[in-house]
Amino acid sequence: MTAPKVLISDALSEAAVQIFKDRGIDVDFQPNLGKDKDKLAEIIGNYDGLAIRSATKATAKILEKANRLKVIGRAGIGVDNVEIPAATAKGIIVMNTPFGNSITTAEHAITMMLSLAREIPAADASTQAGKWEKNRFMGVEITAKTLGVIGCGNIGSIVADRALGLKMKVIAFDPFLSPERAKDLGVEKVELEDIFKRADFITLHTPLTDKTKNIIDAAAIAKMKKGVRIINCARGGLVDENALAEALKSGHVAGAAFDVFSEEPATKNVLFGLPNVICTPHLGASTTEAQENVALQVAEQMSDYLLTGAITNAINFPSITAEEAPKLKPFIELAEKLGSFAGQLTETGITKVTITYEGEVAEMKIKALTSAVLSGLLRPMLGDINVVSAPVIAKERGMVVDEVVRAAESDYESLITLTVTTEKQERSVSGTVYADGKPRLVDIKGIRVDAEFGSSMIYVTNEDKPGFIGKFASLLGDAKVNIATFNLGRHTEGGDAIALVTIDGPAPTEVLEKVQALPQVKQVKALTF
Ligand SMILES: NC(=O)C1=CN([C@@H]2O[C@H](COP(=O)(O)OP(=O)(O)OC[C@H]3O[C@@H](n4cnc5c(N)ncnc54)[C@H](O)[C@@H]3O)[C@@H](O)[C@H]2O)C=CC1
Ligand SMILES: O=C(O)C(=O)COP(=O)(O)O
């Protein structure tokens, strides 16, 4: 196997380069490349992995060219610079490091809050300019003041904890914050309106979504206490900067400290130069400790995936540990092939898919296996589908996907049964993996078989009547089609039967037509795996 190749296109710590090298991965470290989207588009096709921070924009246009790319690793938290649907559609795993820089970012928010309270940057500039303006700067105490935290997840809760240590009263708005967690944190869970009405300082720690965009706008600011101070170390766009600028000018808002902006890099902004505004250039995660944490973590995660298939912290796929990955691999192959078998036989719209996992396989990562079944199933109909995109597409198409997990009831240690319901019929197919690691088909529509998946196969359903097998084999022989394996099965004597043969090379259409014309034959289909 040639070594996978990774491009680091942002200013990650050198620690990442070393990890990739130590793991036997070829690595190109070009810390400024991410800012040059044309250059990135030009070379992205050469890489299996892309490691980034926030400067690289992995847009659909760039990903279009990323034909080898298997994984994007974000050394940090926010993945809003990656077009996840485009990555998912191409089967690219997107992973982040959800905790590596949270303490550092929380500390930045607290630093911003204290700097605002005492106007440190302006006081510093004035003093160093030789002005000694002792009477110009009159700060506020934070002890006993109310801090409103909007978004109390990883970073918000660290901010809350530090603020409590500074003797503030902390109130938090987060629809996903449970009352128990709020109690453990020592914060009062409130509604957004209460934050606006009660807080002396407001700090934002949510992702930027349709719901959170402009969560602080002119109407929200109007409800706030006069003299409120606002801190944003989460994402630009959470606060309407124009509305805030007006409120700063009128004095309704006493100060704002921003690390993130609606447009970045922010070389100009309405907030710049206004009274008591403090700005930093997206430095929330910029400490040696955090950068080392996220670089090491992302490099390890990406290496694990590229070398072993283990998945950690993926935004668009379930996690698979390094221990699980090798055990899961043959079952992923089985799942995908069972899906493909059913998909190639299905000609009408699928309404429901039921996947039953029995025995040992039921203990494995079912979500990953289901994704594999769905990708195999949908690919014959929809083409460009992969394990990452399949569940999203199945959902978009309104398919009901049921997973059933149960103890072994059959002779097999592990059995996966896929039942596909269409508007016209229901079809089931089962498979297992033997000790040799190869996937096998063991049941088709209730008929027992024992067949490997060959790269080219012919599947026939027929009536169990004498004469069929001889004629079928002769038709193949006459057309110089070599049979590699031949599997037969039937329900009952004289009842429904199937033949599944693996042939060398593709199945010629004329042969398929002649087989279809045999009196016992109901359906013939060429299958490829
Ligand atoms: N300035 C910087 O350099 C950095 C910024 N960040 C940003 O900080 C933000 C928070 O990160 P984490 O705490 O790690 O994320 P998280 O996912 O742990 O927490 C986000 C919280 O926001 C809550 N939330 C979602 N929608 C909400 C809504 N409509 N109203 C109120 N709360 C809502 C969620 O329930 C969750 O608890 C992210 O936007 C991230 O990108 C993260 C690291 C560094
Ligand atoms: O981790 C995050 O979400 C951040 O915003 C940090 O961004 P950065 O890696 O410093 O460009």
UniProtKB/TrEMBL annotation:
Catalytic activity: (2R)-3-phosphoglycerate + NAD(+) = 3-phosphooxypyruvate + NADH + H(+); (R)-2-hydroxyglutarate + NAD(+) = 2-oxoglutarate + NADH + H(+)
The EC number(s) this enzyme carries: 1.1.1.95
GO molecular function: NAD binding; phosphoglycerate dehydrogenase activity
GO biological-process terms attached to the record: L-serine biosynthetic process
Major enzyme class: oxidoreductase
Keywords: Amino-acid biosynthesis, NAD, Oxidoreductase, Serine biosynthesis
Matches recorded under Pfam families: 2-Hacid_dh (PF00389), 2-Hacid_dh_C (PF02826), ACT (PF01842), PGDH_inter (PF19304)
NAD in keyword set: yes
Domain of life: Bacteria
SUPFAM superfamilies attached to this UniProt entry: ACT-like, Formate/glycerate dehydrogenase catalytic domain-like, NAD(P)-binding Rossmann-fold domains, Serine metabolism enzymes domain
ACT domain sequence ranges: 457-529
Pathway as given in its UniProt record: Amino-acid biosynthesis; L-serine biosynthesis; L-serine from 3-phospho-D-glycerate: step 1/3
General function of this protein: Catalyzes the reversible oxidation of 3-phospho-D-glycerate to 3-phosphonooxypyruvate, the first step of the phosphorylated L-serine biosynthesis pathway. Also catalyzes the reversible oxidation of 2-hydroxyglutarate to 2-oxoglutarate.
Family recorded in the similarity comment: Belongs to the D-isomer specific 2-hydroxyacid dehydrogenase family.
The protein's name: D-3-phosphoglycerate dehydrogenase
Organism: Rhodopseudomonas palustris (strain ATCC BAA-98 / CGA009)
Lineage: Bacteria, Pseudomonadati, Pseudomonadota, Alphaproteobacteria, Hyphomicrobiales
